[in-house]
Amino acid sequence: MPDSRKSKLTTKSINLYYGSVHALGDVTVEIPECSITAIIGPSGCGKSSFLRLFNRMNDLIPIARVEGEAFLDDSPIYGKDAEDVASLRKKIGMVFQKPNVFPASIYENIVIGPKSHGTENKAVLNEITERCLTKVALWSEVKDSLRKPAQELSSGQQQRLCIARALAVDPEVILMDESCSALDPESTAKIEELMLELAKQYTIIIVTHNMEQAARVSDMSAFMMIDEEKIGRLVEFSPTTEMFLNPKDKRTEDYIEGRFG
Amino acid sequence: MKRRIKPQTAEKIAKGAIWTIALMVIGILIAIIVYILYKGLPVINWSFLTEAPRRMGKEGGISSSIIITLSVTALAVLIAMPFGIGTAFYLAEYTRDNIITRIIRFSAESLAGIPSIVYGLFGYIFFLEILGLGWSVLSGGLTLAIMILPTIIRTSEEAILAVSKTYREVSFSLGGTKWQTIRKAVFPSAVRGITNGIILSVGRSVAETAAVILTVGSDLKMRTMAIHFYQLVMEGISMENAYGTAAILIILIFFINVVANMLIDRFIAKGR
Lengths: 261, 272
Known about the structure:
A: six-stranded mixed beta sheet, B: globular
């Protein structure tokens, strides 16, 4: 890969099956550290399934089966030598499509992760809350209402709270599954700004339907598509500017141009 | 010529019909409660609540019956709750659909439809005859626990399954274990539904006669309010005291409802 940064996440011809459905076929990527990678492609091409391979969220689906290898740094995500899934997910946080705050206070939403990993000290939890809410530019807006129900926030604020909640367990990677698609343009702009800021410290992978968003924020882009056998394939993986200006594959070109059409 | 009702007219008819039905149902319920309270409240005073019954229940109060009712119900709920909620979590969270879960669900459904006198007979044979527990609060509590178990399982399982999948996903994505996810993400959202099932069971236990008369018995000083009431009416002993007992039963169930809901609100407000 042309990017000189160290790879944070790697897959080596990884395959995903849902029962007899072959959802992803032989996907190999090296995601560079402290960068934003955008996964783009038509609906149903396996973008979200691919994203969820990294934090093993597909494990929650009983019929899902994975073949091939995936690594966080040098440690395997799957197989006998893999660490337990809870500690993996502590390192690889996730933000979902819809803002899905717990029906509890803002404060409780932030501390639920750290608490489940054994942090009980009030002062530490307060410090984590302030730090994470500051990172997502929410602290000044909510610092006087931390005990209020999180559902009372606007959906843009809720999504930023969800990002803060993911940051609270101190992850190394953040996966964002179409995290702006349910938000208005202004909130989207705020989250994009936030992504660029967070990428200085975290490795970020986003799934997006919004080409312009991919172009605006990502360093690397992965274009996926299903082939004739309905298997999700990685068509092209390259620096975003290169992919958008000079796509190597005809299918990538068609997709990008079709979208901007 | 085809005649069609205008949608606006249909809307009015539907609205009228639904309102009528709702008002009728509410009206009947209120009428029953008001009637019983009207007949029963004049009988109730401090000594009716604190004195033991005398002369078959013609005189004296119902203190012993209140205590027996509360003990049998509390025992039944305390025994059935952990088993019922545990089974519900097992069914909803720990297994996929398989032969074992199907057997449990089928049994629970069948048990929920069995008349309570059958539970009474079972309790009589098993707890009194085989285990030799005698006519007692313990026999009655155990019998009622078995009787309300299916209700608690079903309502709890429904409450657990109704919790949004996204809460589970978030909890897992934060590195939560299965148990942490159940405790912190699923239980707080399911607790109200689970409680509703328990309140329903409390109501059934308090009001139960058939299963209790065969296991606790109908001795004057050793019978629940529902049985006391039954005896007063069936033996023509005292209609006044029967209404008094019925009024206390209604007030008691109402009180349990209110207290349970208040506790739940406080639990939810306290956060997870």
